[in-house]
Amino acid sequence: MNALSPIAKRTYLYDRLRAVPQGMIEASSSTFLMLIAVQVFDASPLAKALIAASGNAGLLASLWIVPIAERVHRPGMQIAAAVTAAGALAMLVAALLPGLPTLLAASVIGVGGSMLIVPLLTAMYQTNYDPRSRGRFVSRTFVVRVGAAALCAEVFGRMLTANLGLFRWTLGAIAAAFAAVAFCLWRIPSQPLQSRASTSKHWFTGALGALRFVAEDRTLRWTLASWMLMGFANLMMLPLRVEFLASPRYGIMLTPQQVALYTVLIPNGVRLVLSPMWGRLFDRMNFFAMRIVLNAGFALGIASFFTGTSTLGLVLGSVLVGAAAAGGELAWNLWVTKIAPPDRVADYMSVHTFLTGVRGVIAPTLAFQLTQTLPIGVLAFIAAGMIALASALLVPEMRASLKPARHVQ
Hints:
This protein has one domain: MFS general substrate transporter like domains (Growth Hormone, Chain: A, Up-down Bundle). It has helices at 6-39, 45-52, 54-61, 65-72, 76-96, 100-116, 118-128, 134-162, 167-187, 203-209, 212-216, 218-237, 240-246, 256-284, 287-306, 311-334, 336-339, 345-370, 376-402. It contains 19 helices and no strands. By secondary structure, it is mainly alpha-helical.
């Protein structure tokens, strides 16, 4: 820590503080908002798909956050704080005026907003941290967040198992978490974006200009194609975990506390242990080789979780998904810093998050509809096959990146 610059020290301090309420939001967005929709409001397949896709709707809109940030010319973290504060207000309204419409709106505004700001966060990490230790410090923050998510899952799981009527207090706690995140983001040092990607100064057409990098950079193009396959498979299956464990249709019918065990506690416990290792590997290991290893973990985890109802299968699937997620989240947030010129990091990331949003909006909706006609085990094997194909696409890029003097086109 003594070797860190004052900016890096302040970033590390407030990013770790932010990780605690962010963990609450993560646990809630992945499990408890869906549980409330299913068990309190008896949500339709469409409503469940909208909640599952809310974060990805924010990613879809993230292509426009970069040109908007350029136009307002405010520090990136102040913009991120304002977006997060809107999420706090939306969740508070959902707690005070409970109903499926307000829950859906709060999910889209709150969870969507937390993903909308990702390009701003990545640009901040690229600026504030040394590249030789960036993965290490970001992964340490992830450890705090994962621990907070696991604790939140246990507390909220027990509350809702004991009395489902406490869901309003759960939503109020989530609103407070959004407010705390907004405060921490405001305190993180950042500068206005100085991107050169946009050929137009208009915020809408300027965002579309960032897509030209997909055509110009071969490595970016093939990596995004691979990520589309892998991400689509993941985003189809991961939201179905709650449905698989809680819905009477599949015969498991676990309590909220048990659902939280397999969807949050076990995966996050594994992430807690392995995140520091993946942080060190990210700083030292070939990115494409790391991505292929992570893909294997996701494929095996999905196949194990959804192809049996035994405790062993659920635990093994949860452990494998958690192990892959420990490195996968770090890679997802920081990989563009490995290939993008410094002044294009936010633009590359906005294209990546935009495409994540495209698949994220489509995949959960498609998944919930496919479960009406296909066995969920068949869907799991289809997803695993897509992830294997995604890994195959990265092999040529891995070989090329290991050659000396690779240049971004």
